[in-house]
Amino acid sequence: MAGTVQPLDTYVRRVVDTDLDDLLVGLPAISLEGPKAVGKTATAQQRATTVYRLDDPDLLEVVRADSSRLATGPPPILVDEWQRHPPAWDVVRRAVDQGAGPGHFLLTGSATPSDHPTHSGAGRIVRLRIRPLTLMERGVATPTVSLHDLLSGTRPHLEGTTSIRLDDYVTEILAGGFPGMRTPVKRVQRAALDGYIDRIVDTDLPELGIEIRRPATLRRWLTAYAAATATSASYEKIRDAATAGEGQKPAKTTTIPYREALERIWVLEPLAAWAPTHNHLSRLVHAPKHHLADPALAARLIGIGREALLSGHGPSAHPRDGTFLGSLFESLTTLEVRVFAQAADARVFHFRTKGGAREIDLIIERDDGHIVAIEVKLSAIVDDDDVTHLHWLHQRLGDQLLDAVVVTTGQHAYRRSDGIGVVPLALLGP
């Protein structure tokens, strides 16, 4: 029901499930990667016959004494949280080299360990990313517009109507897409997200061997990063915002390891800038746009709630076009598009020229360099000014631009008379 967070009492099939099933038919080992609590283990357990959970201290002790046992048992064999015993990766790789058949191993990991396995696993173990739930997977919406079809270059007819409104999007932004944290009780929801953030600082990073001498400084840096959501603010500006009012700022040698470690546990997921394969464009900005794994984390780090978001309030440390709610809506859209693009074997970027004269929020690129361009607008109405940059990009790229769309908070999906698509986020699917 719109406006109410629906808890997930049973496993809900996800977009990534189809990818996983397809890969298991032909590949002996798949590594499911993503942030904690995103549902990796639940997804893998839908298929596993033998399970080794390395977050169990007793089992971990046994495995450390004899790593080879991880290759025993009827397949599929799941090695859960393999990064707690990095030699597990090499055990699986050697088993593949010795002839393990398709669908033999599943690994899940919530971090990339600092003591990397002796072999990358290239050609033996294929990585598959799992992200927080999309609106479709949360049971919030039924899509009518396929990103796969937009990438086909056929300029498909767009249609569909949704009852999801701005207030509903705010509900979902604040609730987040971590399956086990979805609850209609807002106090419990906030406590769960706060606990997740506390664990990052107090447990997850120390487990990676990152010494946190000043946890308060790390938390302020993470909050400053959250304030920069959907912007390309420099890391120097983020560092300055994290230490405003302090006479002595932490050195880059302190904050860079924080950033790298947060990326290793997939809490940060910056969006790279698009670098076109053909030189149709010049003077591009190459800085990434900043995104956390889920916009709910950004909202909790800032400590902002529904009424403040709907009133246009938010952090002002970094310049942005529009409100902080607009940035969080863009971050939610980015999360959704990344999930759908992965299913279509496409990659997602952002585009911006130096000085910000031209900017496209999302570029989805096929492996042949052809793209779909998406602008994100926190509004139900799209006017000619909102599509100016999309037309400009089409003039320079021609047929390389397969389609152009504005994602909105409106009710109806359609094509404007100029060919630009208008799609409510709730109606966009794989």
The helicity comes to 25-40%
Q: How do the helices and strands follow one another from N- to C-terminus?
A: HEHEHEHEEEHHHHHHHHHEEEHEEEE
Main beta sheet strand tally, sense and closure:
6 strands, mixed
Parts with pLDDT < 50 across at least 5 consecutive residues: none
- Average pLDDT across residues? 91
Query: Roughly how many Å apart are the termini?
Result: 22 Å
The number of helical elements comes to 14
Question: Overview of this structure, please?
Answer:
The protein is α/β, with parallel strands linked by helices and 430 residues long. The protein folds into two domains: 15-129, Rossmann fold (3-Layer(aba) Sandwich), CATH 3.40.50; 145-429, no CATH class. It has 14 helices and 13 strands. The chain has helices at 15-26, 40-45, 57-65, 87-97, 147-150, 166-175, 186-207, 215-227, 235-242, 252-264, 295-302, 306-310, 324-343, 388-397; strands at 29-33, 50-53, 77-80, 105-109, 125-129, 145-146, 347-352, 359-365, 371-376, 401-408, 414-415, 421-424, 428-429. The strands form three sheets. A six-stranded mixed sheet has the order 7-8-9-10-12-11, sandwiched between helices. A hairpin with a 5-residue loop joins strand 11 (414-415) and strand 12. Helix 8 (215-227) packs across helix 9 (235-242). The longest helix has 22 residues, at 186-207. The protein is globular and about 65 Å long.
Show the helix and strand layout.
Layout: H1 15-26, E1 29-33, H2 40-45, E2 50-53, H3 57-65, E3 77-80, H4 87-97, E4 105-109, E5 125-129, E6 145-146, H5 147-150, H6 166-175, H7 186-207, H8 215-227, H9 235-242, H10 252-264, H11 295-302, H12 306-310, H13 324-343, E7 347-352, E8 359-365, E9 371-376, H14 388-397, E10 401-408, E11 414-415, E12 421-424, E13 428-429
Parallel strand pairs: 1-4, 1-5, 2-3, 3-4, 6-13, 9-10, 10-12
Antiparallel strand pairs: 7-8, 8-9, 11-12
